[in-house]
Amino acid sequence: MDTNFWRGREVLVVGGAGFGGAHLCEALLKREARVTVLDRGLPPDSYVRLAGLVARVAFVVGDVRDAAAMKLLVARTEPETVFVLAAQPIVSISNSLPLETAEVNILGAYHMLEACRLSRRSRRLVFASSGAYYGATEATAAIPEDAPPLPAANIYAPSKVAADIAVRSYARIYGLQTVVCRWMNTYGPGDTNYTRIVPATLRRLLRGERPLIDGTDGSNVLELLHARDMAEGYLAAAERAAEPGVCGEAFNFGSGAPLTLREALVELARAWNTATGERVPEEPIVTGPPVRSAKYLDITRARERLGWSPSIALAEGLRETAAWYALHRERLGL
After folding, report:
1. pLDDT reading at 179 higher than 80
2. Structural domain for 244, as ranges
């Protein structure tokens, strides 16, 4: 990637107070970009706040569901690149609040697309999609980008499918430089979504409890990608958004190193013990039956077209993450 690409450029990160958005802001600031963040609020436990990034960005309180406000924001800030990460990402909430999930995840994406379409300057948009795009797949190997979206057991997945397709369509129909990024099981400092594997387990470890596998026996295969590698993926996508084979395309990003859920939790407990000097049992409690499941992404396209590869080894990333949660346990209320 071009280390000088972002210097002095105006960038808008929609959903920048969230976990992935905060790490993206950090990466952009290191490259001396001028960053505006749009989010509904700034929680006290946000990584943007805890990492000391607040004073270095222009923070705007707003909601992607407000189409007029989004057009005005883009018109006033004139970002060269818009990153759309705002979402309602919690599966259980999506099933409880399907309309709100659709408004944020689908209409929110359309509102940002329209704001860019009507702008003479903001022609590049990178969208945060999800491995949930692929639905309830029965794949037994890495999932490629051309795998079809299948029926899912939650409302979150189809909401991401709809926005994913729309973002790519805006490149073909309106000439926007759009790129879709699909992720699955990211982790790192600052994730406060305790329905996810790593923060949920770290919360247990902070309480002196053993790791827990609930619903399976831990033999299901997945992957874990560090948030800094995720941020680098966003940047790589944006930097090449105008190129044929990138513009209007979707890209998978993953660790390239699948492992079982049990192996992941053992590794996390080991990282916790190493980082903190505490001693919790590494072997997780298992409450579920065997499940034949493998959900991890084929990242060949990102390697070949974007020049992106994950760089943070799992053991290293988990130790760093465990140390961060231990350091911030009081501010996180854990």
Report:
1. yes
2. 10-186+226-252
